[in-house]
Amino acid sequence: MSDFPHLLAPLDLGFTTLKNRVIMGSMHTGLEEARGGFDKLTAFYRQRAEGGVGLIITGGIAPSLRGRLTPSGAQLSFFWQKQRHRKLTQAVHEAGGKIALQILHAGRYAFHPFAEAPTAGKAPIGRFDARAMSGRRIRRCITDFAQTAALAQQAGYDGVEIMGSEGYLINQFLCPRTNNRDDDWGGSSANRRRLALEIVRAVRGRVGQHFIVIFRLSMLDLVEHGSTLEEVITLGLALEQAGVTLINTGIGWHEARIPTIATSVPRAAFSWITERVKKELSVPVVATNRINTPEVAESILASGQADLVCLARPFLADAGFVAKAEAGTPERINTCIACNQACLDQVFQGQRATCLVNPFACYETELVSRPAARPKWLAVVGAGPAGLAFACTAAERGHRVTLFEQRPEIGGQFNFALRIPGKAEFAETLRYFRYRLNAAGVTLRLNTQATVDMLAGFDDVILASGVRPRMPDIDGMDHHSVVSYSRVLSGEVTPGGRVAIIGAGGIGVDMAQFLVAAEEPLLQDWLAQWGIDRAYQEPGALMLPHLPKAARQVWLLQRKPGEPGRGQGKTTGWIHKAGLRQYGVHLWGGIRYSHIDDDGLHIRRNGESECLAVDHIVLCAGQESERGLLAVLEQAGMTVHLIGGAEVAAELDARRAIRSGTMLALRL
């Protein structure tokens, strides 16, 4: 019997059947607009279809020029645009899958001067003032959605998803926050939901009854002046009558100041609202957000919270997610850690998406692992992310690999990261690498300090020895109160109640979180901390946040002027800063360090001298490459390659480390 009977059960939609309850959610990859991008996108979706997913939903495609997210954003409005989509749908069907096109009108979130919205104005995250839509423009928009759906059907898609959440155009019409109209499209709840219903009716009228129509319904807006629970349910019931096949869950507007998909968000943190809405509806309802393992998905379905689950980034991390669950080997799944570093952060910078834990994602036609032409004996020194990625990939290609690690466990800096509250997912990556090492036949030698003599018989040596903390030049650095971040995170040192952190990059921010948050919060505590009301008493489901109690008093310091925390990931940096403020962390920039003595850390701030009377001073002031073996190996005439932190000791970057290890393994 399957370990995941609910997850793998087919779903009969009347006119068609989904082979399981897993939907690959919409993700914009950046390939949609790139030259030759559709060929790469076709390979990307083909792999996911081969991996067993029941239904794929594409990244958002605009129904009009005004609806594009960016000036060059993807659009499907004309017959001549269908051809490249046919190639994509054919590939998915050949692989045994189904695929739906997401139709997305950006509204005031558009990054171009032709933005339009129900009411004129600029979004908090926007650059352009949107123009208020006339009645004629609204009617044209409805026609545009229907035309795009018809073209999608002609291009071979099995359905469409109408994007009605996350603060895009339809969502903007639904909420008083962005709809101040006094005509038939604004004012009352009935008028505000009119656009959503007219679009669905028009789409259903064009595509007929034997075509999947999904509506992504914003069940929690998480912004002021959002929808009420009654309005959400009323719209859901009306959407059923209008002819939708499925209702997908949307959580939060992009401008909401509440995290919804970052790694610090508890798994399945929002399935409770899907369950609540599902009780009122008869069409199948889909749960979303932070569902990254088959175990979590199965639990949601088995408990009746939803009829299907929608996973997006987990299919970047592992195209074979469903097939591995079906085979009863979930330990083989490369789990999404919800870091956003290589996917969303990349896309928002106009770059192609990929995945921190899976560099092959969106590079399926460019990064291809083939058997090695001449297998070699390879030694890898260091079992951090770079060394692990290299060892596994090289061994899978046929090389004979021995991995040396001086510590008693693999993981390197990942072992520090997973100790940070909100980053426990990093343990999943190490579990995955342990499986791969064993399956690929890598010889693993833990508790072993590699020497020149040990490495002498190998064809090539790969130095993945990582980094060591950089020691800043401050008088008194030898004081007993001064400790490195590695000593704290390893458990060697337990800091006192008052701590100053020197360095406010990614490590400094993580260290501050580690020092103030005693443990991973339970779901109810996390919801309360961010002001999410499960009782849904106010529009948008907001309430006053319940600020957590800090385990310590912490100062996060940096030399650079301005508040610490800038330069972090676009989609997660604000979350880290907001979380630290909740704990009362002092975020100070423009600091000049004088000296350290028994009284504490002496600094100059805003032109004034002061002393922070702290128990400990934690150094997070950057890293230096650990290359102790390099010179002696080269003197011995060995062929040496540097990867990861040993190659570049910038801010700790697991994405770069894993990618550099993988790329070298593909070249040798």
TrEMBL record:
Domain of life: Bacteria
Keywords: Flavoprotein, FMN, Iron, Iron-sulfur, Metal-binding, Oxidoreductase
Ranges of residues in domain NADH:flavin oxidoreductase/NADH oxidase N-terminal: 7-330
Cofactor names: [4Fe-4S] cluster; FMN
Domain FAD/NAD(P)-binding: 378-650
GO biological process: fatty acid beta-oxidation, unsaturated, even number, reductase/isomerase pathway
CDD domains registered for this protein in UniProt: DCR_FMN (cd02930)
MF terms (GO), sorted A to Z: 2,4-dienoyl-CoA reductase (NADPH) activity; FMN binding; iron-sulfur cluster binding; metal ion binding
Known EC number: 1.3.1.34
The UniProt record lists the keyword Phosphoprotein: no
Enzyme class at the top of the EC tree: oxidoreductase
Database matches in Pfam families: Oxidored_FMN, Pyr_redox_2
Family: In the N-terminal section; belongs to the NADH:flavin oxidoreductase/NADH oxidase family.
Protein name: 2,4-dienoyl-CoA reductase (NADPH2)
Protein species of origin: Oceanimonas baumannii
